[in-house]
Amino acid sequence: MAGKGRGKQQRVGRGTPEAVVGQVDGGLAELAPDRERAEAWTLLIDGAPQSHVDLADPGYLDFAYQRRIGHLIDLVAPARQPLNVVHLGGGAFTLARYTAAGRPRSTQQVVEIDAGLVAFVRAHLPLDPQARVRVRAVDARAGLAKVPDGWADLVIADVFSGARTPAHLTSTEFLDDVRRALAPTGWYVANLADGPPLAHLRGQIATAAARFEHLALAADPVVWRGKRFGNAVLVAADRELPLAEFTRRVASDPHPGRVEHGRALVDFAGGAGPVHDASAQPSPEPPPSVFHR
Fold first, then answer.
1. End-to-end CA distance of the chain
2. Long-range contacts of 241-244 (CB under 8 A, 24+ apart)
3. Which of these, 71, 70, 72, 28, lies nearest to 50 by C-alpha position?
4. Which is nearest to 217 in space by CA: 195, 188, 238?
5. Fewer CB atoms < 10 Å away: N or C end of the chain?
6. Alpha-carbon dihedral sign for residues 219, 221, 224, 230
7. Helical ranges in the chain per DSSP H
8. What is the pLDDT of residue 9?
């Protein structure tokens, strides 16, 4: 990782608002203003986009993968019903803000290992003081271990070190602790990133299938076809998923995606085996072209 400690923060540029940069534990953080939305910002770490936040409208999700996770937050329980949510990976707290706005009185735990990033985001994009969001600056798996048994309605994993998911968050042993923390009706949701030949994605499907009864995966068609590196959103549960509605919402997004489940998802996994701690590898490094804007 590039750099340690928070370092000096500075504003750059002459426009209003200006970009904000600062050194955090994981590299150089930048908050770039969204020129089309007055109170919206994109968080980048070492030039890689991580999160987008609209302080005036936390229900707005700009990134396609975050919209897909937002659909699952909407569908896991009846509208406006408060949830207990664990977010592994904090970024700019986009999905915690989304949950708090759409489901008031929810109780949320955000686990983000980069204490410098937590301080940077809190300073420039403060959380609503009325939102019941607790942020803990520890490793995701260590933070998950502190969650009481059966507490969570949702565990959302969106963890990247640089641009790669750490190996210890890809295994069956990790999912054993996810299941322990989930209520019997709870869902596990993960943001996965992969490119051709999609070996990592296939392995993550097999790993989730070894621990959960029901799975679905949403991704762009070009990612499904192995034509481009990109994000895929996995949802896993021990109860039936609202597949028709999730599929409809993903297909209706500004950047339409495709949802696979059941036999088609098993076939896509292509005989890949579950990943265990002893053999786990981080997700692949994305090509530099992914982050060219």
1. 23
2. 241/187, 241/214, 241/216, 242/75, 243/216
3. 28
4. 188
5. C
6. negative
7. 64-75, 94-102, 115-124, 140-145, 172-181, 199-209, 221-224, 243-251, 262-269
8. 52
How far apart are alpha carbons 55 and 60 in whole angstroms?
9
Check residue 17 and give its pLDDT.
82
Counting DSSP H helices and E strands in the chain, the numbers are 9, 13
How distant, in Å, are the alpha carbons of 94, 125, 179, 241, 281 from that of 213?
29, 38, 12, 10, 24
Give average pLDDT by consecutive 10-residue segment, the chain, 293 residues: 37 66 96 96 93 97 98 98 98 98 98 97 95 97 98 97 93 98 98 97 98 98 96 98 98 97 96 97 88 45
Residues 76-112 as b/e (b if ≥16 CB within 10 A, e otherwise) read bbeeeebbbbbbbbbbbbbbbbbbbebbeebbbbbbb
Q: What integer pLDDT is reported at residue 288 of this predicted model?
A: 80
Q: What is the pLDDT of residue 37?
A: 96
Structural tokens at position 202? 């296939």
Six token digits for residue 267: 């076939």
Neighbours of 267 (CB within 10 A): 10
- Locate tokens 């409809």: which residue? 248
